[in-house]
């Protein structure tokens, strides 16, 4: 599932490509991917322009000139491609938004969605999310208060969207590795120093992943050299049996609370 770095990469690249453009056509091939009748969805979007693209947690928010927004959550297996009728993946597209000759394809939205919302409803949808971890939105003092109220394992704590938003399976493992802590370590076992180390790991891992374009498998458009660049730079995630970049020991995979989890038993402590 795309996490904060992947959605931030999408936000940046889509902003460069479609911000300010007018929507000229909409095709909905799967009505379950949207939240209103297909005719209403198409009527509301056509002739509206994109005035901004923002990210909140694992969501993208596409602001329209009508005052409404499209709220995108790709969930598991969802992705996007920006192309045209001669340049697009040979995959089923659940929704297609056209900007003249440029088309934005939404693919794999079987669990994900693209919802048209008023500002009021948008805020309600996002109200339960925890703070953003980057760009000064979460200070060390605030993080200390938040983590001080938790009793569970770091793995389950970090992926809790009401605790901190945007972190999922991949980056929870990468963060634990960066902090040199086992994903099974209990949050209430942290002291002031280890809390600082975990906080710094959240900052460094997420910023590094954004800089490398996240771990998406598919490019956003032809010639896109950024999206998915993190795939070859993971510390532990999806590297079972491979050598640790630090100690050379083998990366281990386990299931923790029904989530696949990767770690280095030599470098990470209880």
From TrEMBL:
<dbReference type="Pfam" id="PF01149">
    <property type="entry name" value="Fapy_DNA_glyco"/>
</dbReference>
<dbReference type="InterPro" id="IPR012319">
    <property type="entry name" value="FPG_cat"/>
</dbReference>
<dbReference type="InterPro" id="IPR035937">
    <property type="entry name" value="FPG_N"/>
</dbReference>
<keyword id="KW-0479">Metal-binding</keyword>
<keyword id="KW-0863">Zinc-finger</keyword>
<dbReference type="InterPro" id="IPR020629">
    <property type="entry name" value="FPG_Glyclase"/>
</dbReference>
<comment type="subunit">
    <text>Monomer.</text>
</comment>
<feature type="domain" description="FPG-type">
    <location>
        <begin position="235"/>
        <end position="269"/>
    </location>
</feature>
<dbReference type="GO" id="GO:0008534">
    <property type="term" value="F:oxidized purine nucleobase lesion DNA N-glycosylase activity"/>
</dbReference>
<keyword id="KW-0227">DNA damage</keyword>
<dbReference type="Pfam" id="PF06827">
    <property type="entry name" value="zf-FPG_IleRS"/>
</dbReference>
<keyword id="KW-0234">DNA repair</keyword>
<dbReference type="InterPro" id="IPR000214">
    <property type="entry name" value="Znf_DNA_glyclase/AP_lyase"/>
</dbReference>
<dbReference type="GO" id="GO:0140078">
    <property type="term" value="F:class I DNA-(apurinic or apyrimidinic site) endonuclease activity"/>
</dbReference>
<dbReference type="InterPro" id="IPR010663">
    <property type="entry name" value="Znf_FPG/IleRS"/>
</dbReference>
<feature type="domain" description="Formamidopyrimidine-DNA glycosylase catalytic">
    <location>
        <begin position="2"/>
        <end position="100"/>
    </location>
</feature>
<dbReference type="InterPro" id="IPR010979">
    <property type="entry name" value="Ribosomal_uS13-like_H2TH"/>
</dbReference>
<keyword id="KW-0238">DNA-binding</keyword>
<keyword id="KW-0378">Hydrolase</keyword>
<dbReference type="Pfam" id="PF06831">
    <property type="entry name" value="H2TH"/>
</dbReference>
<dbReference type="InterPro" id="IPR015886">
    <property type="entry name" value="H2TH_FPG"/>
</dbReference>
<keyword id="KW-0456">Lyase</keyword>
<keyword id="KW-0511">Multifunctional enzyme</keyword>
<comment type="similarity">
    <text>Belongs to the FPG family.</text>
</comment>
<keyword id="KW-0326">Glycosidase</keyword>
<protein>
    <recommendedName>
        <fullName>Formamidopyrimidine-DNA glycosylase</fullName>
        <ecNumber>3.2.2.23</ecNumber>
        <ecNumber>4.2.99.18</ecNumber>
    </recommendedName>
</protein>
<keyword id="KW-0862">Zinc</keyword>
